[in-house]
Write a structure and sequence with these properties.
Layout lengths: L9 H7 L25 H4 L37 H24 L5 H26 L2 H6 L9 H26 L10 H12 L1 H17 L1 H13 L4 H5 L4 H19 L5 H29 L3 H4 L5 H22 L5 H30 L2 H9 L4 H5 L19
Length: 408
């Protein structure tokens, strides 16, 4: 520090240092690695705010709509563009796990192969989903920190726990058959592994039961895994996501079923019964997804300022493309005939529709967060926190009348 070498007491030296560090030397001494840094442009670093001569609520681009100087009232989400892929993979893994558990309990021996395939799809989805989530968080330690507590009121905390437990159960479900299989992967690892495999064969019944139990637990967690991301979105202040809090979770779960069926349709099948099961599972998911999309639009239609963000721009294009792909996939499933090309085309279209749906919802929410009217207008119409908390009475006991008046 150049100023400290100019003589005088330390306090006098610090007082003479007009370097923009904005520190009161009578209260503390600036020290540490960055203590010698100076602000090059003090006016730029600490701009003096200009006097406001307009009313905040009437200073936006549309003078007849409430705003706040035309600037966003809330922060836009800072998630990476890969987060919608995490939504898709989580839904796929959850739905596949649920189908696998149902086949374990009700399918019989003829559908054992499809049940094992669902286990592997659920396992792969949990692994890929965890990787995508950690990539967004920045480092694995942040994901582990989310598991330091168990908070049922937090969708994010519950989601981290559901993803972790589902991943552990699916790992156990796919690992147990490998341990008990003669000549499998474990036996090839060496003498020690052979001993483990030999022991596992003697206890094959227990391992099989363990794998089945783990698969059932993963299936129970499947639907929450497919839908918790929508609950997480709905619990934010982002207008599009908050306005669809009643229908968005159902749409994500139905879309997860369509996603799982779409991927299973792309994989080879061993029997006609497997094909029928996957087809019916996909039909149920696609019909549910299309119906839920209509419900989402109806829920959004209560506020034009919010719903327009799902109709315009890139989000609107993705939303329309998603519905078109899902509907086309549904039509292919309903057409008579068992041609393989129809199954593949249906699987590709169903997958494209599910991915586009997630990106449409993500983009619409991001754009709506930058629109102050999408935040203020619904609240003044009574569709904001007052509606959520059922609090329509003012502090003086009188009922609130919506829209609320603009305070001048």
């Amino acid at each position: 520090m150049k100023s400290l070498e100019e003589g005088g007491t330390r306090l006098e030296q610090l007082e003479r240092a007009h370097d923009g560090r904005n520190i009161n030397p009578r209260r503390g001494v600036l020290a540490g690695e960055a203590a010698g840094q100076e602000v090059k442009d003090l006016a730029k670093a600490h701009p003096v705010p200009t006097l406001l001569t307009t009313i905040p609520s009437r200073s936006g681009p549309a003078q007849d709509a409430p705003s706040y100087y035309g600037v966003p009232a809330i922060k836009a989400p800072v998630w990476l563009p890969t987060i919608p892929l995490y939504f898709y993979v989580g839904g796929l893994a959850g739905a596949a796990s649920a189908l696998g558990a149902a086949l374990e309990l009700l399918g019989g021996r003829e559908l054992e192969t499809l049940g094992r395939r669902c286990r592997w799809v659920g396992f792969a989805g949990d692994v890929v989903g965890s990787g995508l989530l950690i990539e967004d968080l920045g480092r694995p330690a942040r994901f582990l920190n989310m598991l330091r507590m168990f908070r049922p009121t937090s969708p994010m905390n519950m989601g981290a726990w559901i993803l972790s437990v589902s991943g552990a159960m699916n790992t156990l479900a796919v690992g147990a058959p490998l341990l008990r299989r003669e000549g499998g992967v474990v036996e090839r690892l060496g003498i020690g592994a052979s001993r483990v495999a030999g022991m596992s064969r003697r206890r094959g019944g227990a391992l099989e039961a363990l794998g089945t139990g783990a698969s059932v637990v993963a299936g129970v967690l499947g639907l929450p895994l497919a839908g918790y991301t929508a609950v997480l979105l709905s619990n934010t202040a982002i207008p599009v996501w908050q306005r669809t809090r009643r229908t968005l979770p159902f749409m994500f779960m139905a879309s997860g079923m369509a996603s799982a069926a779409g991927l299973l349709q792309l994989l080879p099948e061993d029997s006609e019964r497997e094909r029928r099961v996957v087809r019916r599972f996909g039909l149920l998911g696609k019909v549910g997804e299309l119906a839920a999309e209509v419900a989402v639009e109806r829920e959004l239609s209560r506020s034009e300022e919010v719903s327009r963000h799902l109709k315009q721009g890139r989000a609107g294009t993705l939303w329309k493309a998603a519905r078109l792909c899902t509907a086309a996939s549904l039509v292919l499933d309903l057409l008579p005939g068992r041609q393989r090309w129809k199954q593949v085309a249906s699987g590709v279209l169903g997958t494209a529709g599910a991915v586009a749906t997630r990106y449409a919802i993500y983009d619409a929410g991001k754009v709506s967060s930058k629109d102050p009217h999408a935040t203020f207008v619904p609240q003044r119409q009574g569709l904001g926190a007052a509606e959520v908390a059922k609090n329509t009475v003012a502090s003086d006991g009188k009922p609130l009348r919506f829209p609320l008046p603009v305070v001048s």
